[in-house]
Amino acid sequence: MVKFIALISITITAALFTAGCSGSGAEETPSVTEPVVIADSFAYPVGKTEYVTQQRDKNDDWYNALDFGEENHLGEDWNKNTGGNTDCGEPVYAIADGLITYAEDAGTGWGNVIIVTHTLPDGKKVQSLYGHLQEIKIKSGEVKKRDLIGTVGNANGRYLCHLHFEIREENSSMWDQVGPGYSTDRTDWVDPSDFIDKQRRKHEQQ
Ligand SMILES: [Zn+2]
Fold this sequence. Notes:
The protein is an alpha+beta fold. The protein has a domain at 62-205: Glucose Permease (Domain IIA). It has helices at 2-22, 192-205; strands at residues 62-66, 76-80, 91-93, 98-105, 112-119, 125-133, 135-136, 141-143, 148-151, 163-169, 189-190. Strand 4 (98-105) and strand 5 form a beta hairpin. The N and C termini lie far apart (50 Å). Mean pLDDT is 87; it is low at 1-26. It binds zinc ion. Residues 66, 73, 75, 77, 164, 181 line the site of zinc ion.
């Protein structure tokens, strides 16, 4: 029933939108520009403030337990310093403004995964991926930097809780897909902490 109502409301909205456009008696072609959310400020996906960085590992509450490239890892594994499962259920935040373009249980090995697509000030796009989540808090649509999008989990009991976190470049072969998590071929992936640090430095200079 809820789905049915949602469908009707989408249909009505679409109909109104179409009517609005065609009824404008356009003498010139109206420029239809979709609003683009620009990701001009970045922060790490864990920690209740923006204090957490990889450089401060062990000096803030979180550390990167398996770095990008280590053991062919395509991301970083973020854990609380207190270890074990003490970080289960901790908030996971969007690293920048963007659009959630994937949010589902990706099955064995992955658990719940969210992918956010970010448009950088220069127009290039990147995606941030948040894996093994206990909960998905936001399933679609626009998010702001530091919006609570999910919680740290264990991929349905497969691991000790941690956040598997990746950043992919535009035209990645795994765009909007979960991917292999580990690979000797790291084309299209970037070191997440290095990327965030670089973006933060750029932002500070502005
Ligand atoms: Zn990982």
